[in-house]
Design a protein that fits this description.
Blueprint lengths: L3 H15 L2 H4 L2 E5 L9 E16 H5 L5 E15 L8 H11 L3 H9 L3 E4 L5 E2 L2 E3 L2 E18 L12 E9 L5 E9 L6
Parallel strand pairs: 1-2
Antiparallel strand pairs: 2-3, 3-7, 4-7, 5-7, 6-7, 8-9
Helix pairs in contact: 1-4, 1-5
Length: about 190
């Protein structure tokens, strides 16, 4: 994965693939911060939290710098319906979506985009609502994905060579005695 736009497009495609074809025909899937499609029912997506684990290639390798972040976004999936029947309300729709995310084809498509589902949703919440002075059935769940974003500085930045490495380790022999080792390695020919 390379950027948020690619991530967002892949998640929409996964949610659409999770829904049965007959359900998708009358359901719009979109990000909540964008335009809403005209459809009988809606599935709206919103990133509610993210965790980042950053990596900098120059810290361990030196040379040209590449910045990478493993991102763990939690996406809220909200289903809305103005229908109040067991086969068309938001609870029914969200269950179609929740179970559909477990389909092998959905997981394979996400994997091809460099995304995995880290935490599958196990429960839903009823939040209800109003639209045009009518009761609106609204249910939601949260699903946690994991992907990585990379940034190669343009123009490239040279972080130089690693000139000194400090190593600390503890070894235990077969008698159970611990030995601590501290070692510093200096490059004999550091860069000017």
């Amino acid at each position: 994965m390379s950027d948020w736009l690619s991530f967002r497009a892949a998640v929409v495609a996964a949610i659409e693939a999770a829904l049965p074809a007959s359900v998708l025909a009358t359901t719009g899937v979109a990000w909540a911060d964008g335009p809403r499609p005209h459809a009988r029912a809606l599935v709206l997506l919103s990133v509610v939290s993210t965790l980042f684990d950053d990596r900098d290639s120059a810290l361990s390798q030196g040379g040209l710098q590449t910045l990478e972040s493993m991102v763990t976004p939690t996406v809220q999936v909200s289903c809305e319906s103005s229908y109040d029947s067991g086969d068309a309300d938001a609870l029914w729709l969200i269950e179609q979506c929740r179970l559909g995310l477990r389909k092998v084809s959905v997981r394979a498509a996400l994997d091809a985009a460099g995304i995995v589902i880290q935490v599958f949703p196990r429960s839903t919440r009823n939040v209800g609502g109003m639209a045009d002075d009518r009761a609106l059935s609204v249910h939601l769940f949260e699903v946690t994905f994991c992907t990585s974003f990379a940034l190669v500085p343009d123009p490239p930045e040279d972080a130089g060579l690693i000139e000194s490495v400090d190593i600390a380790a503890t070894f235990t022999d077969d008698q159970g005695t611990d030995f601590e080792v501290d070692l510093t390695v200096d490059d004999p020919d550091p860069e000017p």
